[in-house]
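Backbone shape codes:
===
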Amino acid sequence: GTRTAVSTSIIRGLDIAFKGVGGSTGTLASGETGVGLSVDLSGVTGSKKYSGLFMGGNVGIGTTSPAAALHVVNSSGVPMRVDTGSLSYALVVSQNGNVGVGISQPESRLTIKGLSGVNRGILDVQNSAGTSLMIVSANGRVGVGTSTPRTELEVIGTVSSNIGSFASMTSTTMNIGSGLLYVGTKNVGIGTTLPS
């Protein structure tokens, strides 16, 4: 029912606590495993199987005051790890907040490890239509405007830079300083982008 009285009580639907003899903190013996709650539906067939449903409240793991729909706190280990049926460490959030994809110990804010034997992009940034805007391929090449970069950096489009240093460069056309120096397919222009 609806409670209207002012109260600081904590109303628990299910409360499970492991304690030692006399209510003190207990210690598991070597080889023992402590399980607070175990739900196994693996032997049940059907399209609608739910090990747990949480409605109308936040869920806290490692915290008694969750501030989000799922709030995980772990000060002594890895707070979050997701495995798939064939891939370990599909997603990891380390203790220092680094995020890893395909790697157990990410050393930067975001570390992505490619799959062994799979010739796919390591990073693929797409627009809403599913077109690749930028890709980092499995061989380390970066493509902007192309999903199949043929060199270490391939850009389909216009590149703008105020400073550049190149050992060698291949380009169909080159425009420096908005026409200060323009190299076309056949002609070179100084002060014009339309050399004749």
About this structure: The CA atoms of residues 143 and 149 lie 5 Å apart. The chain has a mean pLDDT of 84. The two ends are 87 Å apart (CA to CA). The first strand starts at residue 59 and ends at 61.
